[in-house]
Amino acid sequence: MKVLITTSSFGAKDQASLNALRAAGFDAVQNPFGRTLTAAEISALLAEHRPVGLIAGLEPLTAAVMQGAVAHLKVISRCGTGLDNVDLPAAKQLGIAVLNTPAAPAEAVAELSLGLILALIRNVVVHDQLVRSGTWKKRMGLLLSEITVGIVGLGRVGRRVAAILRPLGTKVVATDVLPDHDWIAAHGVSLMTLPQLLATADVVSLHLPYASGDLYRLMNAERVAAMKPGSFLINTSRGALIDEQAVADALQSGHLAGAAVDTFEQEPYTGLLLQAPNVILSPHAGSYARATRNRMELESAQNLINQMKKSE
User: Fold this and answer.
1) CATH: 2.30.30.230, 3.40.50.150, 3.50.50.60, 3.40.50.720. Which one for 2-104+290-311?
2) Cα separation, 249 vs 267, whole angstroms
3) What is the pLDDT of residues 159-210, one digit of tens each?
4) Most exposed: 27, 72, 135, 306, by fewest CB within 10 Å?
């Protein structure tokens, strides 16, 4: 039985996941392009290899893609958390099981978020650029203990960010549609509405799943304008959560002091934020830490193996 692996770096640092698939009797076919696939490319690979399982990355798994493979494809095992690239209603209708690895990336994404907060409030990237350009000029920074960080979404990642920040003396406020009041009280987090958070926080960090269009461009021009003047915006969730034009305009005007973005609507990214001032851009690397990546790959392989055993 064949398994198609479309996430481009699967097994690059650790062979445990590939070994697990082989031990379970699967022949693993890997992404030949070394990048995120287009719908046409994944359709062609599915037709060529006719796998029973797919270990997926961020490629578009549309209804048409899955319909073309329904005769043989039984399970999609996402190596990662988000499932917004998978047409879930179509998968359900076609009888294709869809699984993910929601717990594995949380620590790595949270730590990247912390790194981006520090880089922004202490002007790390700006100072690097100035020194390299021959300009010996300091920009005044902020301390973690003097700022308020607003977390939008208290899922696994948002909670971990809060848990890291609180012992450092940072005031943490948050908003969530289904708040766990006991957890919030135990961790010293103040619960707010989104408008209250935007007006209060020195740093707004997005940690929301993106499962539907309801959150499309949550941070639109109106909400970016509602942020505290001189504040910072961080997005390590999904690119579709922010309106790039609104963020770029706010950076240009100085309403936002800086921004950091790790995920984009179109990847690889070539958009207008490349020209915006004081913005840190990262190539969707939130989960790309050695231990996390190995765990994600092994979990996605095991999810596929377990699901295939259920269907026998």
Assistant:
1) 3.40.50.720
2) 21
3) 999 999 999 999 999 999 999 999 999 999 999 999 999 999 999 999 998 7
4) 135
Question: Which one of 159, 207, 238, 295 is the catalytic residue?
Answer: 238
Q: Could you tell me the pTM of the whole model?
A: 0.88
Whether 10 and 31 have beta carbons less than 8 Å apart is answered as yes
**CA torsion sign, 278 to 114 to 16 to 18?**
negative
Burial (Cβ within 10 Å: 0-12, 13-18, ≥19) of residue 271: middle
- How far is it, in rounded angstroms, from Cα 9 to Cα 56? 11
- Residues with Cβ within 8 Å of 40's Cβ and at least 6 positions away in sequence, in order, are none
| Active-site pick, 284, 293, 295, 297 | 284
Annotation says 207 is catalytic: no
Asked if 267 is an active-site residue, the reply is yes
Q: Which of 48, 146, 222, 267 is catalytic?
A: 267
Asked whether this chain's domains 2-104+290-311 and 106-281 adopt the same fold, the reply is: yes
Q: What is the CATH number of domain 106-281?
A: 3.40.50.720
**Residue type present at position 281:** L
What distance separates the 2 farthest-apart alpha carbons in the chain? 67
Output 15 or 142, whichever has higher pLDDT.
142
Q: What is the CA radius of gyration of the chain?
A: 21
Catalytic residue at 312? no
CA separation (Å) from 248 to 215, 254, 258, 276?
19, 10, 10, 6
Residues 6+ apart with CB under 8 A from 169: 144, 145
**Burial class of residue 241 (count of CB atoms within 10 Å of its CB; 0-12, 13-18, 19+):** buried
What are the sequence ranges of the domains in the chain?
Answer: 2-104+290-311, 106-281
